[in-house]
Amino acid sequence: MMRITIERQPLEQIEAGALIVLVFEGRKEARFGAGDLVDAGEVAGKSLELTLLHRPPGVAATRVLLAGAGKPEKFDPAELRRVAGTAVRHLKSKSVKNIALALDPEHADGEYAAAAVEGAILGEFEPDRYKTEDDKKSVEAFAVAAAGGAAELDAAVARGRVLAEAQNFTRGLVNEPANRLTPAKVAEAARQMASEYQLECEVLERKQMERLGMGALLGVAQGSAEPPALVVIRYRPAQTDSKAHLGLVGKGVTFDTGGISIKPAEGMEKMKYDMAGGAAMIGAMRAIAQLKPAIPVTAFIPCVENMPGSRAQRPGDIVTAMSGKTIEVINTDAEGRLILADALSYARQQGATHLVDAATLTGAIVVALGHLNVGLFANDEAMRDRVLQAAKAEGERMWPMPLEDDYKEYLKSAFADLANVGGRWGGAVTAAVFLKEFAGDTPWVHLDIAGTAWLDESKPFLAKGPSGVPVRTLVRLATEWKDW
Question: What's the predicted TM-score (pTM) here?
């Protein structure tokens, strides 16, 4: 585990394998022997540009890394998070084990300090658990060098560590292959985490779900030899005056073949990530347990494996959801909305007054927004704005999408209350409209993370694979909750 500290001594005295110094576009940087490089145009301060100086004069650090931070007017904690991650990954590749990052006085506050720590911890993560070579590199220590207020920075750095480690915990879960992370194993991981952080954890098994009438969830699970599980993790504050109870619902399909409506073979190995929404909820609860918001928060993670076994549901089957609504299953590859439907109903039954779900739900959202923005749908403007505000503060980009009642026309079925797909057009919207039927009048936000939960190629600041979106947004939503 990386050691995290705050350094308050002058930069020249900090002993480290490398000292990261931010360089901004249009600003003269003459420290540490950088002046000639700036004058020559070799160092321009462009975002994520890196220049490594060895044994610079007058500095205790062995190296100084000049890290481009872009235009100063556009610099914010989200940009610092990326810069810190990029710098740490670069230095790690050079086998540097002890790193410090210098914050300028204008940025020496809690938000920037937390972002620097998050960037470092997130950047250090590698998806290489199952590689057996002995030469894996790691960073042992990271320090934020700043002269700001002691109490504020100490608390911020601790919070940044909690958030980043929760996000990496999520990334580790998502990265597990489906032969090693079945629904039962997700439940086991949730129980272990809950035990470690003094949370309540309950796991509903098939018979309990049958008694509750969760026909939509069980219909998806019936094609697999792996039994389903509905994981429930509860955080209760010591005392609260709030009437709010936040419910976090995450899709937990540990592998998605598409079922009878089977997917193409190419790229199917990535479908181990189809439980990224569920993993994000477990990770968020890990952080919430440590940061202790003032409201109760409960996570609901329906876990199944979607397989084309001899008992698998077929296109044309009709299932009855926990809410009593009947659903014609037109396409068995639209399974996420089926398991979420019952989980949303159960969350409402358990007293959740506000709901957020996250799911790798549709390819259509990737067509609409690419891999840059989460698609956000809401049945309540105030709830939508809360989530967007939290996302903006955490640098997790989200884009509001339409949810008009007219879209329900696409889900009409001659044989049941609604169909589980709505045809080719507006696929991300019709999926959200389907879920809206089960959120009812509870303020609810749906996050379609299909395009953002996985990086097909590594970024300078993040390794290839799971991103951990939207853990930070969910945690900030809970910790900064204020009643209407």
Answer: 0.97
